[in-house]
Design a protein that fits this description.
2 domains; 76% helix; mainly alpha; disordered N terminus; 2 strands; MetI-like fold; two-stranded antiparallel ribbon; 324 residues
Length: 324
């Protein structure tokens, strides 16, 4: 009897200890954390679903259109499955011309914007008089709407009443015809893009410069390094992560250039300044070939993904070398 009673008491104590563990402070904190996670998902889930809907539905629908024949004569009617849009795309010289222009435009614009932005950041890195005013002034172009920028540069390039040609005529120089020649039109749209987006490069690089410890630069100067050596061997390597981010952002955006070109040149003269986005717009919404326009848009997406992957892969290797 005594042994049995002792075993019963011991069992009840062990059960009480288990029950006390369930009601311990650690258990309460775990349940509270679980409730917080559940509530957090409840708040975030609607926004996630809206974002997925806004991003996934257009992509899937465009993919569907690109593999079908679309009839718009009696409304939007999706026909049978076909590879005709993609076959035509592969053999379309105008499409490959638009891709060529887009790549050339992106490379030239981003390189010039990075160089000019770095120079401006180096100039305004020091606490110069009026530096704050110039920082705000340089940021104004990227705050303007693409429509305003396109119209403004169209007026600037106007051969009859444009101020640029008026100054050239005053100097005894003739009008170069900014938008009438194929090669000069490309240069003109690059100048417009550089004017608009150099401020973004400038602000990102300036932030990176201000994060570099001044002790490092001062030590290099004490060791006898020239200003050029400080920039090339110290500042540029330490700016590498910021530079990669800035170039990547501008590269992705430059591939999608549309509004400024549409208003400034309309893709002309001929097809000299027709970007891939502009070509897709012409095919989809002017020729009403929605299936072909969707194929063009998806091909640009594939191009951007491939270029971005290669760029990030090369940048990762470069950053590893810089860090070592």
């Amino acid at each position: 009897m005594t042994a049995g009673a002792g075993a019963g008491v011991q069992g009840s104590r062990s059960r009480r200890r288990v029950g006390d563990g369930a009601d311990s402070p650690d258990g309460g904190r775990q349940r509270a954390a679980k409730r917080e996670r559940t509530a957090g998902w409840g708040f975030v889930l609607p926004a996630v679903m809206v974002l997925l809907l806004l991003n996934t539905f257009p992509l899937v629908y465009s993919l569907l259109l690109s593999f079908t024949r679309v009839d718009t004569s009696t409304g939007l009617q999706i026909g049978e499955f076909t590879l005709g849009n993609w076959t035509s795309l592969m053999h379309d010289g105008q499409f490959w011309g638009s891709v060529s222009f887009t790549v050339v435009f992106t490379v030239i614009a981003v390189v010039v914007e990075y160089g000019v932005g770095l120079c401006l950041a180096l100039l305004l890195r020091e606490s110069l008089a009026g530096a704050g005013f110039f920082r705000v002034l340089f940021a104004i172009p990227m705050m303007l709407a693409p429509v305003a920028i396109g119209f403004m540069w169209r007026m600037l390039y106007d051969q009859s009443n444009g101020p640029i040609d008026a100054v050239l005529r005053g100097l005894g120089l003739g009008s170069p015809g900014w938008l009438s020649g194929s090669h000069l039109a490309v240069v003109s749209v690059v100048i417009m893009d550089v004017w608009e987006w150099t401020p973004l490069m400038f602000l990102l690089l300036l932030a990176g410069l201000q994060a570099i410890p001044t002790e490092v630069i001062d030590a290099a100067r004490v060791d006898g390094a020239s200003a050029l050596q400080v920039v090339v061997r110290i500042i540029v390597p330490m700016l590498a992560p910021v530079s990669v981010t800035a170039i990547f952002l501008r590269m992705i955006d430059s591939f999608q250039v549309f509004g400024q070109l549409f208003l400034l040149t309309g893709g002309g003269p001929g097809t000299a300044t027709t970007s891939t986005t502009l070509f897709g717009f012409f095919q989809g919404f002017q020729s009403f070939d929605l299936g072909y326009g969707a194929a063009i848009a998806l091909s640009l997406l594939v191009l951007v993904i491939v270029v971005s992957t290669l760029f990030l892969s090369l940048s990762r290797r470069m950053l590893q070398r810089v860090e070592t």
